[in-house]
């Protein structure tokens, strides 16, 4: 199985980004970390339970029964709610996934919702059979996107996380600049640089920084150029995909010279 499988996401704005799908190795380490955390939480709860039972034994058996029922419920919530809680809190990440730089997303690249998180995590009981995620591992070996049954049922997959980039962070990076690989400068005559927004510059920078990792790199460059021209009410550019990438690099270089 190819652990470097990528997923191309096409946005409504005709901009595509590639996600590297997480393989079995990285997912195993994330699951191991989460399992250790769950085990630690359950151990703490059991210690508290033992102490509480020692105190409650001085009262009626009914109180002891209620204490056992309460702690049984808490243990179940920790076991079944751990992943759901953190995936909703951290947008598809559990502590183990965050440590490994992984994230659960829907197949269309959008964040998972509560319903998907419930389905994929409640299905763990099947994935775990007969023990140690036996069914889940077999399913992941057979599926080219390393999905277990829970992912197949919920329509989700696990990818290597791409850290979100804020406009403020992009502005700081632009002020520091970065080195562009060699490119063929193109003419910017008539192109209104001053009308480009912070979001436009962020998209251009994101592309230039990540282009070696993006799928359909040259096609994506042309789509970005077309999107910029359409938003600025400019006529469609007459250039091929290679020229589009050089055009974006020229734009970026011109913006740096303007800031100096």
Cα-atom Rg, whole angstroms? 25 Å
Order of helices and strands: EEHHHEHHHHEHHHH
| Average pLDDT rating | 81
Record field, number of beta strands: 4
How would you describe what is shown here?
The protein is mainly α and 260 residues long. 59% of the residues lie in helices and 8% in strands. The chain contains 11 helices and 4 strands; from the N terminus they run E-E-H-H-H-E-H-H-H-H-E-H-H-H-H. The protein has helices at residues 24-56, 61-89, 95-100, 114-122, 124-127, 134-142, 149-154, 167-176, 198-210, 217-231, 241-259, and strands at 6-10, 16-20, 102-106, 156-160. Strands 1-2 form a two-stranded antiparallel sheet. Helix 9 crosses helix 11 (241-259) and helix 10 (217-231) crosses helix 11 (241-259). The two termini are 49 Å apart. The model is unreliable at 164-173 (pLDDT under 50).
What is the strand and helix layout of this fold?
Blueprint (H helix, E strand, L loop, with lengths): L5 E5 L5 E5 L3 H33 L4 H29 L5 H6 L1 E5 L7 H9 L1 H4 L6 H9 L6 H6 L1 E5 L6 H10 L21 H13 L6 H15 L9 H19 L1
Antiparallel strand pairs: 1-2, 3-4
Helix pairs in contact: 1-2, 2-4, 8-9, 9-11, 10-11
